[in-house]
Each structure stands twice: as structure tokens, then as C-alpha cells.
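Running low. Any example?
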Amino acid sequence: MAAHEISLRINGKPYAGRVEARKTLADFIREDCGLTGTHLGCEHGVCGACTILLNGEAIRSCLLFAVQAEGAELMTVEGLADGDRLHPIQQAFWDHHALQCGFCTPGFLMTTLAFLRDAPRPTEREIREALAGNLCRCTGYKNIVEAVTAVAETLASAAHAGASPPLAGPADVAGSAAAVHARAALPGAQTRPGGKGSRSERAPSHSPKRRRS
């Protein structure tokens, strides 16, 4: 199969590679770029573990081919922290015990990042709907919702006080004007992930039903 040269930026740094047309963006990020914080779960765009930002938009990186991201600006979970200083969203997940095994956590963090940028003062229902496209087998979701609620309040209070904690990481990918205006209409793009299902304390409203194996 013919290979293609691609170049893009991830977390503010340039990356280039030669890939087959069939290689997914998730595999390129993990295997070619060595950024293994992006996790692969279902590989069908259902679980949300592989969520990243592409030109400021939350997408499922398992549903895109690497060649489709030519010239794009990406942000992965590695772009959140500033050295040893956690991003406010990461800190909130830590403080509220919103993770256990951690496998799904990168996807939740990136989904939350894009969501709070677009909805800085969300209701609980809006938070549950925004997170409904990300699946977690450990926490029961309650603490995740509490973490997002807490960080939304923290960021809103900081903004009201005149401070502006970035909703992007050090690379400022998600918050940059170029990223916000370059909304790529690609398969897998999502601004409000979600599905249908019953509402309960253990799962976000409208969350997709889990498949039994």
C-alpha cells in the first residue's frame, strides 16, 4: 500500500511521518509520535477514550485517518499540564476522585476542555449530556460530573475576578484564535457527544447503553 508524507502540530510541536492511507490518527499519535496518553478502547468511536482536539474541535481520533490531519493543529492530553503543574481540569479530577483505573480519563479530560470552552457556566444536565459520549466502567460517573461542575465554577470565578486561567494547555491550542476558527468538518468531529439511554445517578443522561461481552 502506498505511503503518504504528513506533517502536523501536536501540543504546539511539529511532527512529521510517512504513513499508509489506512493508518488511523490515533495509531499515528501513539506509535509514530510516542504520545501514548491517547487511549484506544472500542476503536468504533463509541467509548470516547481516544478523544483529542483537532483545530480546537473534540474528535474521536480512532475514526480519522492520519492523512486527513495533514497540516492540522492537534492537542492531546499531554498538552494539558505545564510541567508538574496540573491543568485545572486535571486537578479537579484528582480532587474529586473522578478516576480509578484511568483508562478513560484522557478522553474525559479532552471532552471537558472543549465543552467548558464553549459552555463556561453549564448546568448539571448540560454536563451530563456533554459527557454522555464518554464511557467509564469504574466511577459510576457521579464524581466525574462533580469534578466538571467544580472546575467550571473555579474557572468562572477566576474569570469574574479578572484572571484568565487558560482552557488550553501550555501550547494554547484550544484557545488560540486560529484553532477556534478552523473548525474542521471531518468524520468523528463532535461538539456535543452523546447518545440515547436512561437517566440515573450512575450514568450521564442520554448516555449510550453499554454492550455486554
User: Anything to note?
Assistant: The CA atoms of residues 54 and 92 lie 24 Å apart.
